[in-house]
Amino acid sequence: MARTRGSRADITGPLIREHARRLIARHGYAAVSMRKLADAVGVQVGTLYGHIPDKQALLMDLMRSHMETLLDDWRDDPQATPVRRLERFVRFHIAYSLDHSDGVFLSYMELRNLEPDNFHAIGLLRRRYEDSLERILKDGVAAGTMTIADSRLTTMALIAMLTGVTNWYRAGGRLDRDRLSDVYWGLVQGSVGVT
Amino acid sequence: MARTRGSRADITGPLIREHARRLIARHGYAAVSMRKLADAVGVQVGTLYGHIPDKQALLMDLMRSHMETLLDDWRDDPQATPVRRLERFVRFHIAYSLDHSDGVFLSYMELRNLEPDNFHAIGLLRRRYEDSLERILKDGVAAGTMTIADSRLTTMALIAMLTGVTNWYRAGGRLDRDRLSDVYWGLVQGSVGVT
DNA sequence: GTCTATATTTAGATAGAC
DNA sequence: GTCTATCTAAATATAGAC
């Protein structure tokens, strides 16, 4: 039991990431000092550097893990019809965005604070996710069940529309989540001309 | 001609705002120091404070003037049909977003850096703009030329979709602006069930 | 109106004790 | 693994000269 003062090695690392995600999502990367982060976690500043090399690495860790979880959670079903696959994508994206709103917000807002190499790496992961949607749209056109003027533009437009839900939806509000997804799915169906 | 050293009172104020808009849109409010701003403008730090009270007032000035210009430039035409009014809104919003991309981006990203009173004031202006779109959608439903499950949600979804164009559109790219607006207008028509 | 100089606070990061 | 103490740089803002 030769423990030092407040040692809890197993949980401090995750705690730092949790608080950093929340604080940066709320106030922005540059506005969250290492001291404020340490205060939120309940440790001293120096302690942070036992878990992360520097502030930029912390941001990159948050963004990379967010994108990897997103890509890992989304599983397209190539057996289903394109329309059904699109519906699954819409409902998945909304649910994921609401369940991980801080991560979604942060990953979108803090791209500009990544150093060039990190920016490029995250860009590749984002592109993979976008492409998985574009694949569905192209398959829908090929199958004759969707009408789309420009699949790339439509991909970007739909993702912007769906992700925007994090900006105004508040739990306990006028709409419940199922109803929310239903309405969005209706908008998407119309916009891609589902027959 | 008793001018002091580099005095050019008439243009320094506007120059400060122009550079601040560009720098904050690119790097974020907290990341742009008054020194960096002064460097970009070509004056010393102290000079800035002859034109603005403090950094927060500068941000608020940028956001307020942006919203007021937006509201002033958008003129609905109550004589036209709802569908025609919606088309005008879509094309206006895209053109405005591309012509003022720094201002649009900044006004969206830096809301969280406004002090409470300022946040509230900007929120009211944003709400007025949103309401002008929702009015069109409601009129379209009443006229029987649009099918909309939830006008408020659809308003937020459409604005998010249209504003998203600033995130990926680059002048000189694959699409010209007219073609871009055409495609977006097609998406919007479908999503609100224009008959 | 602008510059130089400075007051004061806060930032990211590290060293060494426990 | 964590804390205390500290280094160095950079932040916002102001005072007074020209």
From TrEMBL, chains A, B:
This is TetR/AcrR family transcriptional regulator. Signal peptide: none annotated. Transmembrane segments: none annotated. It comes from Paracoccus albicereus. Keywords: DNA-binding, Repressor, Transcription, Transcription regulation. Residues 33-52 bind DNA. SUPFAM superfamilies: Homeodomain-like, Tetracyclin repressor-like, C-terminal domain. Residues 10-70 form the HTH tetR-type domain.
